[in-house]
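Our preliminary data section would be incomplete without showing what the modeling component actually yields. Below, a chain of 442 amino acids is followed by its predicted structure, encoded as tokens that our downstream tools consume directly.
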Amino acid sequence: MVDVNENPFDGTDAIFERKQPLKKDTFTPDTIFHRDEEIEFYINALQDVIVGHDPNNVFVYGPTGVGKTAVTKWVRDKLEEKAEAEDIPLTVVGPINCRNYRSAYALVNTLVNEFRDPENQLPESGYSTDSVFEFLYEEIEAVGGNVLIILDEIDNIPADARNDFLYELPRAEANENTPITDAKVGLIGISNDLKFVDVLEPKVKSTLGEREIKFGPYDATELRDILGYYANIAFREDVLGEDVVPLAAAFSAQERGDVRQGLRILEKAGEYARMEGADGVTEAHTRRATDTIETDELLDYFEHDLSSQQALTYLATTLALIEPKHEASTKRIYNLYSSIAESSGRRVKSERKIYEFLDQLSMQGLVRSAERNLGRKGGRKYIYEVTDDPTDIINAALQSSYSDAVPSNVNGILEHYLEDEATEFEAPDTTDDEQQNLWQFT
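Predicted structure:
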């Protein structure tokens, strides 16, 4: 029973000294572990700025949570420090996260405003895309010298503008149709998609990939060093059990070699200990954190990483997968997508767009497809599956802002999906259109 007259909040924290180090994206470490070779490549690529040559374009790629952005920021700071000491004209913009922009116009608009004073900001609309590009070139020429633009998650630049944007911007000073004559432009692109370069046009690939730096996943030993560094800053002295950091490192290495995941595990384990009023964080708290981390990460995707249309497509793919006696074909996914979008009052896009959304989800590693030859019938079709446990995906969707799009009987269908094949849910053979009657949309 809760005493409503008693304040439940505690003014002290016996577990955490400061939680910010566990929020990797908002904390800049004093030490970078196990990236000496990548830093050496980076410095070599940008050394030309210091010795008077044109800046190189650099493409950095690797999975999430492996230090790409942290290393980029560190190298950027050291480059600016050296340029200032040597009186070398250098302007660095970014990192700008391309995930936050759904059009080339919005992205270029933001770049323009990075150069401008607060009282002279470009409005979010009112000009053509060509005009905002022209404004950007004018700003680059106005600052002059070496201009380095850093774009994080560059694979999120809209597909219809990707090739033009990534080809034209790094070559702006060589284009006689731009006002740039004295400035020297360099582009650093950071991507989580290892195959991103493969889908670019050859001329873009040649321009963007002048210097490529690959970041691989960390192994368990490396993660133990990194997580131990952050844990020493984040937790109070002597509250972590000796198995906590090694267990979080081992789990993260087994999954993806991702520092972010390890930090989430440590934070979650600490919160479980604090909720219990425990004196310290134990192996049991850490194992409990690893059990829930997958749903938490998928919830982050729904809430922060996916557009609304991508999220609905992801949910529809999961629902198609767990349906009894059915394949997650593109047509079936589209029918389910249409139903959940309409039932939740969201806009229904065309079937052609679904291919685009599925490609985007595939690039993010959330779905994968297999091509099936239809034999005598002719043609091919694609069958999709999700890369995470459907139970985790549905649980995350139910906790997200898309819970209103989840069919009310999803748990019953999921339960049958999880049962042994011997007791598989019996449903009549139906067409794609008829099969949607299994679902209850409210």
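The CA atoms of residues 30 and 393 lie 36 Å apart. The chain has three domains: 35-214, 219-301, 307-424. Preliminary results of this kind motivate Aim 1 of the renewal.
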